[in-house]
């Protein structure tokens, strides 16, 4: 599948070993449950890095460690307060073990860390998170690591289908929306959200930190109240976004900075709890058969879709489909597609 980057939600040794000597770049993750321990004990962070990073480099290319995921989405103030100290502890551990030049440290946040996101120029972090976000941004600026955001325009459309334009969220032709403060015009919600994050960072004194979308996607199925969760819309969102990324297109605010986006997900998570949509973000069913074929053009589609569609059924022989099942499903590893031939991997314990 020409994968060249992978993101794990953990640091599963079976996966890291399997990808040795492939040239694939890896991002691995420290779970939220470890943050308080690492924040209070540099030795714990060093032990984690010694066990989960050092044994695999350089055979496996580990280029980033994410510390925690959407920590500010809950109400656990102890974990919130532990995030930055844990990030610093992991960064120091990498340096102490001679790996600092090979791997950066970051953390992924929900787009809900923003108090305002439209117009993009009004982007601002929530006031209750200011005490955390400013020093985190300082850390990113000092270490050269990116600020990661999980953004899903689907949720905005689901919450208000009568007022949110479907073409606007699906990257389909639409009149666009103008930001009155900057004069910039936006023809899709995701790029507006990215620029809102840039505006929020600027309001905190930072124009020196990059933004990456560490998760986005669209479900192909949902409950009765999950408006817009259809195969056609999922194919349109992912296919049209993939086309934009293939063009190395930037946002209106940062036109010369190509958008870096991870698309969730490669496989449907058939055992995941919650609304039906949570189990239907994948391009493939758990048995390896495609949910839909991506189209590179507007509106999705069910055909091969040109060079931007590596998931068409004819790409896989019966033997290769069996190999995919044996390799990933028996290891209980969840793959997620990253545009530009990059994936994330989720492993279930």
UniProtKB/TrEMBL annotation:
Q: Which GO terms of the molecular function aspect are on file?
A: glucan endo-1,3-beta-D-glucosidase activity
Tell me which stretches of the chain form a coiled coil. none
User: Which keywords does UniProt give here?
Assistant: Glycosidase, Hydrolase, Signal
Q: GO biological process annotations for this chain's record?
A: carbohydrate metabolic process
Query: Which InterPro entries has this protein been placed in?
Result: GH, Glyco_hydro_17, Glyco_hydro_17_plant
Q: What is its EC number?
A: 3.2.1.39
Against SUPFAM superfamilies, the record matches this protein to: (Trans)glycosidases
One Pfam family, short name: Glyco_hydro_17
Cellular component aspect of the GO annotation: plasma membrane
KW Manganese (keyword) present:
no
Provide the top EC class.
hydrolase
Under catalytic activity, the entry for this protein gives: Hydrolysis of (1->3)-beta-D-glucosidic linkages in (1->3)-beta-D-glucans
Record's family? Belongs to the glycosyl hydrolase 17 family.
Protein's UniProt name: glucan endo-1,3-beta-D-glucosidase
Q: Which organism is it from?
A: Zea mays
């Amino acid at each position: 599948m020409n994968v060249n980057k992978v993101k794990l939600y953990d640091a599963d040794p079976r996966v890291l070993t399997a990808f040795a000597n492939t040239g694939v770049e890896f991002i691995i993750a420290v779970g939220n449950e470890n943050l308080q321990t690492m924040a209070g004990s540099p030795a714990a962070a060093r032990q984690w890095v010694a066990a989960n990073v050092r044994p695999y480099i350089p055979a496996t290319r580990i280029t980033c460690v994410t510390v925690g995921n959407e920590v500010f989405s809950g109400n656990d103030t102890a974990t919130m307060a532990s995030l930055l100290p844990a990030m610093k502890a992991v960064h120091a551990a990498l340096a102490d073990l001679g790996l600092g030049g090979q791997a950066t440290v970051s953390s992924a946040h929900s787009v809900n860390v923003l108090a305002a996101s439209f117009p993009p120029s009004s982007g601002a972090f929530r006031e209750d998170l200011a005490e955390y976000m400013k020093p985190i941004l300082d850390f990113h600026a000092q270490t050269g690591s990116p600020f990661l955001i999980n953004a899903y325009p689907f949720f905005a459309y689901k919450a208000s289908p009568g007022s949110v334009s479907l073409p606007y969220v699906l990257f389909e032709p639409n009149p666009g929306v103008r930001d009155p403060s900057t004069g910039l015009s936006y023809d899709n919600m995701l790029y507006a959200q990215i620029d809102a994050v840039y505006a929020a960072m600027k309001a905190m004194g930072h124009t020196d930190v990059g933004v990456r979308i560490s998760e986005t996607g669209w479900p192909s199925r949902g409950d009765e109240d999950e408006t817009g969760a259809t195969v056609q819309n999922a194919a349109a969102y992912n296919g049209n976004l993939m086309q934009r990324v293939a063009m190395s297109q930037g946002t209106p605010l940062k036109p010369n900075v190509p958008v870096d986006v991870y698309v969730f997900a490669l496989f449907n998570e058939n055992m995941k709890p919650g609304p039906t949509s949570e189990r239907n973000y994948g391009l493939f069913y758990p048995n390896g058969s495609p949910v839909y074929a991506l189209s590179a053009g507007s509106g999705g589609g069910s055909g091969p879709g040109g060079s931007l569609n590596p998931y068409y059924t004819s790409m896989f022989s019966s033997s290769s489909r069996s190999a995919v099942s044996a390799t990933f499903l028996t290891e209980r590893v969840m793959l997620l597609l990253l545009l530009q031939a990059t994936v994330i991997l989720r492993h279930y314990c």
